[in-house]
Amino acid sequence: MKLDYKAIGQRVRNERNKKGISQEWLAEMADLSVNSVSHIECGNTKFSLPSIVAIANALNITVDCLLMDVIDNSLIQFKRELVEIFNDCSKEEYTLLTDVCKTALSSYRKLQRK
Question: What's the pLDDT tens digit per position in 23-46?
């Protein structure tokens, strides 16, 4: 199993930005340096289990939210993420996103059959 540190870092950044908090605040709450948080978000460093747990706790999310691409049973988290994306959409946005998802899935499945 190989961890995708860039993807994990991007999810940390996305969660932090979604909550409107700074790297400084996250660093303080997770008992990390601002430099460490920055490197984690950029995917430039490996992190320890205690660090990622501290970040998840500070962001009030579960660790599987951050590690979902490497957890075998992460389908629940992917579904939660889709529900969250659709949650505050207008009818027009919901229709557009549904059409995009259907088209993307159809294209993906055709590529997989080749």
Answer: 999 999 999 999 999 999 999 999
